[in-house]
Amino acid sequence: xxxxxAVDGLGSDRSDGVVWLTLERPEARNALTIAxxxxxxxxxxxxxxxxxxxxxxxxxxxxxxxxxxxxxESLGDGTGSVRxxxxxxxxxxxxxxxxxxxxxxxxxxxxxxxxxxxxxxxIASERACFAxxxxxxxxxxxxxxxxxxxxxxxxxxxxxxxxxxxxxxxDQALRAGLVNEVVPHxxxxxxxxxxxxxxxxxSPASVAxxxxxxxxxxxxxxxxxxxxxAMAKLRFRTDPADVxxxxxxxxxxx
Length: 254
Description:
Blueprint: E1 10-15, E2 18-23, H1 34-49, E3 55-60, E4 64-66, H2 71-74, H3 89-95, E5 100-104, E6 107-109, H4 111-117, E7 121-125, E8 129-131, H5 145-153, H6 155-164, E9 168-169, H7 170-176, E10 181-183, H8 188-200, H9 204-217, H10 222-235, H11 240-253
Parallel strand pairs: 2-3, 3-5, 4-6, 5-7, 6-8, 7-10
Antiparallel strand pairs: 1-2, 8-9
Helix pairs in contact: 1-3, 3-4, 4-5, 5-6, 9-10
């Protein structure tokens, strides 16, 4: 377990360098309370600096990934203001240096979609569906939706989702590029574990450098992005013996 205080609605488990964070409020479709959001921030920060952490996986307890923030709690004072609005786990996920995989097992709406978009990539169950209901309920996104969703699915589909609140299913999310794969529901965790194992056996230094380049090059011109890669290559120290060992091991596994 991660050495953080227990948080109702949030499960955490660490094994072999992999941290699984699970949203656990199925009776409320895993809606994110303020305590859960703070717990996610603490857990992600602890995992990111934890020795030996290679991958973080974020998922939910069936039947949902998450319906987003818990509006009953956040608007419970009757003033119409969202309490705890600065408690932004998506920002922390984007700032971390550890690869984060979203295992989307069901409904993924609004703030939860922003959290999913802040993962490195998403593997979805056939039961997954995605929507942004900020405008539909009279709110404005604040965790990155307007920047991240168009980059994931294209500007036109993003506008349609954001203006209408309509959901797209797993197959449409796959066609749009929002998720990398769609698998049968009962196979989701097994498929994610296999992907995690592929990352775990890769070079930690190479994974870190490779993951960083697309992020720093996003929005740059092609020439600038190529220059960033060239500079990173000059700074990177290759160990020929390690390369030979890893290459032989990869050939053996295949």
